[in-house]
Amino acid sequence: MEEGICRKIEEAVEGVEGIKQYSTYADENTGTAIIEVQEDYDLDELLDEVRSKVDAISTFPVDAEKPIIREMLIRNEVVILGLSGDMSERQLKEWAERIKEGIQQLPEVSQVQIFGTRDYEIAIEVSEERLREYGLTFAHVSDAVRRSNLNLAGGTLRT
């Protein structure tokens, strides 16, 4: 892997304009090349140049798969904000959404993520006694709910 693929990729990208530094890693049946781009250099242009250099390598081993060349975006966490209070889980989640929307409005922020909250859920409790009165089973109720279920994107549903 190291000799047959990684070194050949290193030789191909050596001297390509826009590369700040690169490194390759060989492991059993896999190899990885990581290229760091110079600041203010056009990433798409560099990606095309690297792709054409690697595609031009004709001496890869016969059983080697075609290399996959793609942009890898690395994001670093800058702030982790914890939210707690004397309110229901639903209220906390709603506050978290409002705070998220506010932070997303900041031009310096590229990504905001909420974690640690549970998805909204609706519980349906059915009395066995009532089911018997109407001649129904849990399967009937389950089928009715399944048929009426709607998965919608955020927004307002008016009926």
Task: Walk me through the structure.
- The protein has 159 residues and is an alpha+beta fold.
- It is built from 5 helices and 2 strands.
- The protein has helices spanning 2-13, 43-55, 89-104, 128-134, 138-148, and strands at 19-27, 30-37.
- Strand 1 (19-27) and strand 2 (30-37) form a beta hairpin.
- The radius of gyration is 27 Å and the shape is elongated.
Features:
single chain, 159 residues, alpha+beta
Please mark out the parts with pLDDT under 50 across 5 or more consecutive residues, or reply none. none
Helix content: 25-40%
How confident is the prediction overall: mean pLDDT? Answer: 87
Give the ordered list of helices and strands.
Answer: HEEHHHH
As a whole number of angstroms, the C-alpha radius of gyration is 27 Å
| Tally of strands | 2
Topology:
Blueprint: H1 2-13, E1 19-27, E2 30-37, H2 43-55, H3 89-104, H4 128-134, H5 138-148
Antiparallel strand pairs: 1-2
Compact overview of the structure:
With 159 residues, the chain is α+β, with helices and mostly antiparallel strands. It is built from five helices and two strands, in the order αββαααα.
